[in-house]
Design a protein that fits this description.
The chain is of the alpha/beta class. Helices cover 36% and strands 14% of the residues. A hairpin with a 2-residue loop joins strand 12 and strand 13. Helix 1 packs across helix 3, helix 2 packs across helix 3 and helix 4 crosses helix 7. The N and C termini lie far apart (44 Å).
């Protein structure tokens, strides 16, 4: 099978489009792009969509988020304003922040198993690597999910939007990417271009064993997710590596790619079996590639993320595991809240049987090895079982 043409930069990194990382990101803006960002902020502020920083108060949205909308609209501020305005209205109508903080943990986990999952690792640029195996999404699994998600009820959410409960569950996963994973990867500075926050993800999509009928049955599942993600989480995708394509795939690719917008399809790269490991290792260290695909990482689809060794230098766990090698992030939604002296505190949220989960998991201290200060911060944030928090931190919407 002939792989989709892959464009390569001098550094050996795939160039997936006009603004491939770090081009068009913080620390790598041209003067016209910097001017466009200023203009965009002014337009958003004039419409009541953005509040600039003031003394002691952070801006309503960080520059990383705003730049995602600008890149999606080729740095044309009025066009970015239109998409940003529609997204803010959509978020408010569907109470996306509340959905993420209160989604039932069982619902979240059921949904997580049907979409790309973070392996816990990053590529050579520090961008998180996701894995998605399509074969498990058979007709029985999808029918059960449709039935389960139809009865989804999220505490404190009275949506006025038209987004289905099934898709609201999905967007809790996108919130996890922007509110937890991206800030974590941004804080880990042992990577090229550490001055540029991470605002995208890479996906390994395994379609081995998937028949033509299954592809067809999954079209709405994939198309709906892609459409809304492109509209409301623009520029969060860096590239997709498709592996395990069946022999008939070149024949059906012409109509499958019509399920997705042109921007998304431009980031999809179909790898032949002989090219898979060679291509993946060009962009991802072998230690961060799952063993199933020739790497060394003992990660399998459905597992919790495997802790990145780089995190251990910066993380202080609220409850250290007796066996350090088995330390892991809890399943379910997690968000960051500001700590002291530039630290970030990870809080597990969501709910179980109607009871809210608000548990401090760890402190991230990117620029300090002062474990004592981190433990003191954990103590300050927990008062008789209640959580004292400030404004959440994230590359999504603050």
């Amino acid at each position: 099978m002939e792989a989709q043409r892959i464009r390569t930069t001098e550094s050996g990194i795939l160039n997936t489009g006009e603004f491939g990382y770090p081009t068009g990101h913080l620390g790598h803006l041209t003067e016209p792009q910097k001017e466009a960002l200023v203009t965009f902020k002014e337009l958003c502020a004039s419409k009541g969509l953005y509040t600039p920083a003031s003394q002691g108060v952070t801006p309503s949205h960080d520059d990383t988020t705003l730049l995602r909308f600008l890149r999606a609209r080729r740095f044309v501020p009025p066009d970015a304003l239109q998409q940003f305005s529609e997204t803010e209205a959509w978020r408010q109508a569907n109470q996306i922040d509340t959905v993420y903080e209160n989604i039932d943990l069982k619902d979240y986990e059921e949904t997580r198993k049907l979409y790309p999952q973070w392996t816990g690792r990053r590529d050579k640029r520090g961008i998180p690597v996701y894995l998605f195996e399509v074969a498990p999404l058979n007709s029985k699994t999808m029918a059960n999910y449709a039935k389960s998600s139809a009865s989804t009820s999220i505490a404190h959410v009275k949506s006025k939007g038209t987004t289905s409960p099934k898709l609201l569950r999905l967007f809790a996963l996108y919130e996890n990417l922007t509110c937890f994973i991206m800030p974590l990867c941004s804080a880990l500075k042992e990577r090229p271009n550490p001055e540029s926050p991470i605002s995208q993800s890479n996906n390994i999509v395994d379609i081995s064993g998937v028949g033509l009928k299954q592809f067809w049955n999954l079209r709405s599942h994939m198309q709906d997710a892609s459409t809304l993600a492109t509209a409301h989480y623009p520029e969060t995708l860096d590239r997709i590596f498709v592996i395990g394509a069946p022999s008939f795939f070149p024949t059906v690719w012409g109509w499958i790619k019509r399920w997705f917008d042109p921007i998304t399809t431009s980031k999809i790269f179909i790898l032949s079996p002989q090219d898979t490991l060679r291509t993946l290792t060009t962009f991802i260290d072998k230690s961060n590639i799952p063993k199933k695909y020739g790497g060394d990482l003992p990660y399998e689809f459905g597992m919790a993320p495997i802790l990145d060794p780089a995190e251990e230098q910066h993380i202080t766990w609220a409850t250290p595991h007796a066996i350090p090698s088995q330390q892991a992030w809890p399943l379910g939604p997690i968000k960051w809240v500001p700590g002291q002296n530039g630290t970030l505190v990870a809080m597990a949220v969501g709910s179980s049987a109607g009871v809210e989960r608000r548990e401090i998991v760890a402190t991230l201290h990117p620029n300090s090895d002062d474990k004592k200060a981190a433990y003191e911060q954990l103590g300050r944030l927990s008062v008789e079982g209640e959580i004292v928090v400030e404004k959440p931190v994230g590359n999504g919407h603050a």
